[in-house]
Amino acid sequence: MDRPAPGSPPACGGSDDRRATDRPRRGRSIATDDPHPADSTRSLHDFVVRVRQDARLDTDSEAEALSRATFRQLGEQVSRGQAEKLASGLPRELSAELLTPTAAQARSFDRRTFVDAVSGSTGATDLDEADGQVRAVLATLGSWAPDSELSDTVGQLPDDLAAMLQPR
């Protein structure tokens, strides 16, 4: 992502509070919408860059779209309470995706069905490639989530899908 020169106004008219020392923050309030994704927090950038690298994607935008689609599906797999706990450890721009499931209650489906649903949202056509990309998002989540929340989440998922949450 391009950053404005020091002292110049940030893109998109928002404030630029990103610093090299920013780390992922836990327990932030959950946003319901991010109208300016290009002017997002540093932690979103960190998360997206890691996903882009691990999933071998070309752009941050692709990694963010993949992350959002993966979290929307994950939000349908776990209880609302668990989704809220996981969301508190994510960048606020991504946390809302966990909290907007279309189903009234958690549904359980296997890894292939999960990956197929994500790939349908992102336009991926190769399921093996999509599997690796979804794994990159879930493994990144696994490294960001508090251990207690990760183990609670794993307990709500089928084994083949839960295995994807293990950091590489």
Please explain how this structure is put together.
With 168 residues, the chain is mainly α. The chain has helices at 42-55, 60-77, 80-87, 92-98, 111-122, 127-144, 147-155, 159-162. The protein has one domain (38-165): Orthogonal Bundle (Globin-like). Helix 1 runs antiparallel to helix 6 (127-144) and helix 3 runs antiparallel to helix 7 (147-155).
Give a nutshell description of this structure.
This protein is mostly helical. It is built from 8 helices and no strands.
Main sheet characteristics: none
- Tell me the structural class: mainly alpha
Total domains? 1
| Shape estimate | globular
State the helicity in percent bands.
40-55%
Strand percentage lies at under 5%
Overall pLDDT, averaged?
76
Q: What is the CATH architecture descriptor?
A: Orthogonal Bundle
Superfamily (CATH H level) name: Uncharacterized conserved protein DUF2267
How many helices? The count is 8
CATH topology: Globin-like
Low-confidence stretches: 1-40
State Rg: 16 Å
Q: Give a count of the beta strands, DSSP E runs of length 2 or more.
A: 0
**How would you spell out the order of helices and strands?**
HHHHHHHH
Q: In CATH, what is the class? A: Mainly Alpha
| Terminal Cα span | 25 Å
Secondary structure blueprint with pairings:
Blueprint: H1 42-55, H2 60-77, H3 80-87, H4 92-98, H5 111-122, H6 127-144, H7 147-155, H8 159-162
Key phrases:
168 residues, mainly alpha, Globin-like, 8 helices, 54% helix, 0% strand
